[in-house]
Amino acid sequence: MTSSPELAGRLGRPTPTPFGPLSRPPELASTIDTSGLVDADGGLVDRAIFTDHQIYQQELRRVFAPSWLFLAHTDQFRRPGDFFGTYMGEDPVIVTMDRNRKIRAYLNSCRHRGARVCRADAGTTRNFTCTYHGWSYGLDGGLVSVPNKAGYPDGFDTADWGLVEVPLIDSHRGLIFGTWNPQAPSLSEALGTMAWYMDAMLDHDGSGTEVVGGVHKWVLDGNWKLAAEQFATDWYHVNMSHASALMLLSPEGKGPRDEIVHRSGRQYADPNGHGAGFPVHPRNRFDAQPVHQWFDYDAARARLGDARVEGPLTNGHATVFPNFSYLPVNGSVRVWHPKGPDRMEVWAWTLVDRSMPDDVKEAQRLYNLRTFGPSGVFEQDDGENWSEVQAISRGFVTNSVPLNYQMGLGSEREDGRYPGLTSELYSDSAGRAFYRRWQRLMNTPAWYEGDV
């Protein structure tokens, strides 16, 4: 493991910082060989990956720190000084627009004693000031004010003590991502073919998307991977887990028609761990009636093609590895923030097309809130499943029994209609790809580790 000064320098500080004799012993970052915990080819997963604390700490270092992580939507930043507080793994960050209208992100931790320099969730400011001792930072991350600066030694230079900056920020169709890895492949490379599926939700008519209704946040018991992999791969649970919700939303409470229950479709499995599943039907439509009536399906076909309109445009589910997921039918996008191996915090936005009339935007917002909001009829089912899985996984015998991800094993193929490798709708293909990518990162030294 490289020393602490080297690590710090590679994490994106604008200027070198004098660390003196500090050097972190490698024992503080010992690693576990996870190659025996995931058999992606055979479709088996060891439950220890959901419960072990050392594995979780390794995830923060090797999965979250090197990956492109969703931060915010461009619609949240309209003028210099607008900011939004979020997390990259468990690291708090501030995303802001600087005076040159550039989106930047900083570790939300004062360089003096480490307290947050911004405690508000969002807003507009001229600078970020720590409420502990008053160190203040500009929108460019530089240290601009130090109370009692005369008390520091002559070698103290404020230029050395700016906020730690996220070195790479980029966006795709309004979605802002960042990574701590200054050597990371571009966001475009990281998304790869997944962008084709994402654009079925994000690029309906060229007007772009915007956020309505703010950000909803809630805490669930369960490992973050349980949620991320479900949104990547699992249409299988819908008819069982959401039976009561489907009954509630069906005409006259008779339950959905047989052709709705027994859907056929495709599931996309990306080599970078992303995944998407969607029913395929010529008459796929948006569920909220005002959205359906307003939407121009013919124009969407001309722009996006028949394959996307009949597939991932509406019903479906998807995850961008590691922890960003979305549901096209109601415009729901969310992040599964890890909070230890046994807990996650869900942050969810509703996206709508900018071109939608206000009443249609409101209809989509309400439909999302009622279905996949914190108390939504579908969302509650999912949270209950994840907490149930987690609740018993710490038992010695239970934790020793592997989990089965074998549905659709060997069915992946290039079908000539949907890009990349796809499987049947009812499949674990994207789940296997998710854990294959997870295992590869867990066993690969991150950029800051050098030779280990």
Automatic annotation (TrEMBL):
Superkingdom: Bacteria
Gene3D superfamilies membership: Naphthalene 1,2-dioxygenase Alpha Subunit, Chain A, domain 1, Rieske [2Fe-2S] iron-sulphur domain
InterPro entries recorded: RHO_NdoB-like_C, Rieske_2Fe-2S, Rieske_2Fe-2S_sf, Ring_hydroxy_dOase_asu_C_dom, Rng_hydr_dOase-A
Pfam family for this entry, one: Rieske
Keyword Disulfide bond: no
Domain (Rieske): residue spans on this chain: 68-166
Region of interest: Disordered: 1-26
One of the record's GO molecular function terms: monooxygenase activity
Similarity comment: family membership: Belongs to the bacterial ring-hydroxylating dioxygenase alpha subunit family.
Name the UniProt record assigns to this protein: 3-phenylpropionate/trans-cinnamate dioxygenase alpha subunit
Organism from which the protein derives: Parafrankia irregularis
